[in-house]
Amino acid sequence: KCLISSSSSSQASREPPPALPPRLQREDEPHRHRIHHSAMQFDAVWASLAFGALGCLLLLACRRRGGKDLPKAMRRLVVVEPNADLALARVVVEEEAPLPVLKRGQVLIKVCAASINPSDYGAWRARSAKGEYPLPTGQECSGVVVATGGGVSTLGLLGRRVAAFPGSGTYADYVACSAWRLVCLPGSVALADACELFINPLTVVAMLLTARAKRATAIIHTGASSALGQMLCKAAPGFGVEVVHVTHRQQHVEMLHRLGATHVLNSSSDSYGAQLDEKIRALRVKLAFDCVAGDSAGALVAKLPPRSTVYAYGRLSSSYLSAIPVIDLIYRGKKVEGFMVTRAFAKLGPLELLKYKPLSQHTGTTKGC
After folding, report:
1. Is residue 236 predicted with pLDDT exceeding 90?
2. How many whole angstroms separate alpha carbon 254 and alpha carbon 258?
3. Which of 35, 237, 303, 323 lies in disulfide reach of 365, CB 3.0 to 4.6 Å?
4. What is the pLDDT of residue 40?
């Protein structure tokens, strides 16, 4: 009996409440609409208050920070009068240069180290197209962020150790840089090493991506003993590209072999021409990257097979290219092109960059690069 009564009571509890008569339902409907509308208004008010508070917090977080104990002036290296002969170029240190005025989205970096690239002292040789002198020099550096100009992109950067690529003015005590053109450094990376994080490494990546885009399995690189050449020596195996390294001193040949290079030639040896011919045939080389200029590019054009390309990306020996066989350009489809890292990435396009995945992620062949 108890079971029956409990069962019946549970069934009764599950039954829906009796519906109101139709007349009462019609009278209650406007009241329910008013309650629902009031609840929506209440939610909208709270949402607007929350967004307003969030905006205020964001504005406070994005305001200018730091810069209280900075000096009023700084030292910087400037070119007063360029000259093709570096010994005659007028390069001076300004002792009382004003500190950069930060714009929104910029940070002020206290420079700890700055690299010297051939493209840097190129500004000491040739007159600037803008004609603005004295001309601040230096393109990349590393240091510590001591002030920010405000903006979302600068959040959390004050006090951080960074490597930066402002593009100019890094040979100074302080430099302004966009927050989008720097990289925060882990504690294990020394500032002296991080000052050349952009120009040479990105040029190496652009070279190897260009070779891969052209389906080249081997390339020639002159100036192989340079910092860029040593980076290329370590990075190339990770991209599946073999490199014929060309240098002009025997001690550099030995150094590159110690770094792991397989194909190293000494351009000052008597057998250089025959050795280069052999490497080109064995590796089927059709791409070369030349930073020497002068007769170097012309010699490479003459040695390479038809439909080959020589990229000129430097001028270590001369500001001009010479000894280029015109017949090779006309009848054999060979090309000589300028190579600059920014244009190279633009030419590769976003799809090629998205496919960028060095083989070293799987093989570990570029350890120490």
Report:
1. yes
2. 6
3. 237
4. 62
285: nearest Cα among 224, 230, 352, 215: 215
Q: Where are the beta strands (DSSP E) in 181-294?
A: 182-184, 218-222, 242-247, 263-266, 287-290
> 3-class SS at 219?
strand
Query: What are the beta bridge partners of residue 235?
Result: none
* Sole residue written with tokens 């590769």: 348
87: confidence class by pLDDT, cuts 50, 70, 90: confident
- Given a contact cutoff of 8 angstroms between Cβ atoms, the answer to whether 66 and 146 are in contact is yes
The answer to whether 199 and 119 have CB atoms below 8 angstroms apart is yes
pLDDT band at residue 364 under the 50/70/90 scheme: very low
| Residue 255 · residue 224 · CB < 8 Å | no
Residues 43, 146: Cα–Cα separation, whole Å? 43
Given a cut of 60, whether residue 2 has pLDDT beyond it is: no
Distances from the Cα of 290 to the Cα of 284, 314, 325, 343, 349, angstroms:
18, 7, 16, 17, 23
- Identify the bridge partners of residue 172 per DSSP, sorted by sequence position: 76
Give 30-66 pLDDT, tens digit per residue: 555 555 556 666 566 666 766 666 656 555 556 677 7
Q: How many helices (H) and strands (E) does the chain have?
A: 12, 15
Peptide bond between residue 21 and the one before it cis (omega within 30 degrees of 0): no
pLDDT at 12: 47
Element (H, E) at 224: none
Cα–Cα nearest to 232, from 218, 216, 243, 246: 243
Token representation of residue 35:
């309650």
Amino acid 38: pLDDT: 61
